[in-house]
């Protein structure tokens, strides 16, 4: 069964996590490069960015405006801990700001930061913290109704629960850990 959404957000920690040749559909994918520890080689990142541009894949850099400008990225991703009230969209006309939130207070902060998309976590139970609270389909849909910003579910999305995303009131979803574990299987299901 295929999952049809308008946009797919793939969060990677390094450029080896994903093979761009697996992506067949164009203009639907956002790759968020979220490597806070050590940045990959700049030349390799520029090459990866160029390939993304050729395949019409949006390339977003997390929490590093200097790197985003250096790579001529399509936008910036602001993690939930990034609470600076800076409007990054003023830098370039088509520069996208994407935020991440866990609760209503953080959603409000991301709206103030002028985020076009807000990744809302945790939709389902995650492997690294089984006791953490989750939103579930119903609670996510209630939050999505009242928000003009486009909420995007994140967290615990696996191949086994991919069909549950059909019940969500959203046009996109984000995947983090499943991309690293089974990239080809998950990408083949996203058409």
Characterization of the model:
- The chain is an alpha/beta fold.
- The chain has a single domain, classed as TIM Barrel (Alpha-Beta Barrel), CATH 3.20.20.
- Helix content is 26%, strand content 21%.
- The chain has 6 helices and 8 strands.
- It has an 8-stranded parallel β-sheet.
Termini separation: 9 Å
Name the helicity range. Answer: 25-40%
Give the number of helices. Answer: 6
Please list the strands of the largest sheet in the order they lie side by side: 7-6-5-4-3-2-1-8
Question: How many domains make up the 3D coordinates?
Answer: 1
The CATH C-level name is Alpha Beta
According to CATH, the fold-level topology is: TIM Barrel
Using only C-alpha atoms, the radius of gyration works out to: 16 Å
**SSE-based structural type:** alpha/beta
State mean pLDDT (0 to 100 scale). Answer: 80
Largest sheet: 8 strands, parallel
Assign an overall shape: globular
Beta strand count:
8
Percent strand: 15-25%
Under CATH, the homologous superfamily reads Aldolase class I
Write the CATH architecture name. Alpha-Beta Barrel
Order of helices and strands: EEHEHEEHEHEEHH
Low-pLDDT residue intervals, each spanning 5 or more residues: none
């Amino acid at each position: 069964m295929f999952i049809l959404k308008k946009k797919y957000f793939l969060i990677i920690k390094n450029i080896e996590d994903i093979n761009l040749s697996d992506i067949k559909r164009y203009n639907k994918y956002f790759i968020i490069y979220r490597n806070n520890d050590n940045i990959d080689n700049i030349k390799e990142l520029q090459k990866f960015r160029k390939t993304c541009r050729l395949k019409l894949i949006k390339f977003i850099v997390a929490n590093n405006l200097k790197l985003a400008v250096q790579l001529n990225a399509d936008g910036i991703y602001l993690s939930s801990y990034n609470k600076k009230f800076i409007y990054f969209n003023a830098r370039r006309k088509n520069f996208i700001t994407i935020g991440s939130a866990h609760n209503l207070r953080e959603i409000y902060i991301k709206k103030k930061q002028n985020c076009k998309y807000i990744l809302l976590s945790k939709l389902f139970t995650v492997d690294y913290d089984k006791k953490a609270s989750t939103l579930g389909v119903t609670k996510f849909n209630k939050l999505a109704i009242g928000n003009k910003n486009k909420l995007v579910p994140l967290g615990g999305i696996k191949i086994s629960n991919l069909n549950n995303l059909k019940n969500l009131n959203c046009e996109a979803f984000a995947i983090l850990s499943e991309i690293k574990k089974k990239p080809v299987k998950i990408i083949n299901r996203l058409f």
